[in-house]
């Protein structure tokens, strides 16, 4: 039953990703089309509509192939194939996007060279300010303190890994590393997300700093930061549940490891709905659509700095955080060292629990 639940959940995520990519061209700024700077009126002409129609046809075909391969793999090879579901769909969606981008490139134009600076203080961009942002770390620290004082009640041998059916299949002897390293890994992930939270508040180079476009962009940034903060709380809750409840108490009961899946799904659905309403950078809000420039603005960067249309690398740009060209939210300037620090922290958070499981079989 648990295995079927996981497979259906992953299949639902795959369909959600395909749906997002289907509508994504309509959520980007009007003068950015498949990550290429174009005139604002371009997407209304016949060539743009033909590109969009072909993109969606290819996306549908490739997504069906990816989902079929995923389901067939589960039936033939078992639930070990489950982690491949999302990467398969992402690869299929990227292929469709990249092919469409190549068709748009001949229609590219130069964006404006004018940049706008935001001179106002943005101390209230993070919901609840830093008091709320410290909550996940406080929860994690409370778990560590609890485990420290309850050390004698932790089983001498406890589970560190579960199979796809929710049954434990790997154990570890009680030690400082096996108990506290997973918490340290989670702390690394939370630190990376906190840097993203801080970057979204203070390191973003605005595309529009004033006027109705600037106001809509600011609301969009607040929404993005609220989602990042909510993700931090969910990660802290999930880690606390696994470490405290499952290890110190009823750790052998199947199904306990997916108890927070519904909350994650709710967060994803709410995020999709809110961002679909905003559009990238608030571009779909009525106030933002009232202004139009004769010169394409795009994101005020040259197309050549966007590798494959999704990776931004510009040593001359001091900005660390910029809007995505295709997608919702923000991405990082890969030429800035802070980007690699965040990547390291995320990697550490993913590797430490795996390392514990490998050291104790």
Compose a concise summary of this entry.
The protein has 361 residues and is mainly α. Helix content is 57%, strand content 7%.
Write structural notes for this entry.
The chain is mainly alpha-helical. The protein folds into two domains: about 1-110, no CATH class; about 115-360, no CATH class. The protein is built from nine helices and eight strands. A two-stranded antiparallel sheet has the order 1-2. A two-stranded antiparallel ribbon has the order 3-4. Strands 5-6 form a two-stranded antiparallel sheet. A hairpin with a 6-residue loop joins strand 7 and strand 8 (about 330). Helix 2 (about 45-75) packs antiparallel against helix 3. It starts with a helix and ends with a helix. Mean pLDDT is about 80; it is low at about 250-255.
Summarize the helices and strands and which ones pair or pack:
Blueprint: H1 2-27, E1 32-33, E2 36-37, H2 46-77, H3 85-104, H4 129-133, H5 135-149, E3 157-162, E4 168-173, H6 176-202, H7 211-248, H8 261-278, E5 306-307, E6 311-312, E7 321-323, E8 330-332, H9 337-359
Antiparallel strand pairs: 1-2, 3-4, 5-6, 7-8
């Amino acid at each position: 039953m648990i295995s079927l639940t996981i497979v259906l959940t992953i299949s639902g995520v795959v369909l959600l990703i395909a749906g997002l990519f289907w509508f994504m061209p309509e959520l980007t700024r009007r003068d950015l089309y498949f990550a290429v700077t174009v005139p604002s009126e371009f997407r209304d002409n016949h060539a743009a509509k033909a590109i969009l129609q072909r993109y969606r046809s290819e996306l549908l075909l490739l997504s069906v192939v990816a989902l079929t391969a995923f389901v067939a793999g589960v039936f033939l090879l078992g639930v070990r194939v489950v982690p491949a579901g999302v990467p398969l769909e992402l690869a299929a969606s990227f292929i469709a996007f990249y092919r469409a981008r190549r068709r748009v490139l001949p229609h590219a134009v130069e964006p404006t060279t004018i940049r706008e600076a935001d001179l106002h203080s943005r101390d209230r961009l993070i919901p609840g300010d830093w008091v709320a942002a410290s909550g996940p770390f406080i929860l994690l620290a409370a778990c560590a303190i609890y485990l420290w004082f309850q050390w004698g009640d932790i089983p001498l041998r406890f589970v560190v890994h579960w199979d796809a059916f929710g049954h434990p299949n790997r154990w570890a002897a009680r030690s400082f590393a096996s108990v506290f390293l997973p918490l340290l890994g989670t702390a690394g992930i939370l630190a990376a997300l906190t840097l993203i939270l801080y970057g979204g508040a203070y390191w973003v180079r605005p595309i529009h700093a004033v006027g109705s476009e600037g106001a809509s962009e600011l609301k969009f940034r607040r929404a993005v930061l609220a989602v990042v903060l909510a993700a931090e709380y969910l990660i802290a809750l999930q880690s606390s549940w696994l470490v405290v409840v499952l290890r110190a108490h009823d750790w052998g009961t199947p199904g306990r490891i997916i108890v927070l899946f519904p909350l994650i799904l709710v967060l994803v659905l709410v995020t999709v709905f809110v961002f679909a309403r905003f559009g990238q950078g608030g571009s779909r809000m009525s106030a933002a659509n009232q202004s139009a420039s004769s010169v394409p603005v795009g994101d005020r960067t040259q197309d050549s700095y966007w590798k494959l249309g999704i990776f931004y690398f510009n040593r001359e740009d001091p900005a660390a955080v910029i809007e995505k060209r295709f997608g919702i939210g923000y991405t990082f300037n890969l030429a800035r060292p802070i980007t690699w620090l965040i990547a390291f922290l995320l990697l550490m958070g993913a590797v430490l629990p795996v390392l514990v499981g490998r050291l104790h079989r």
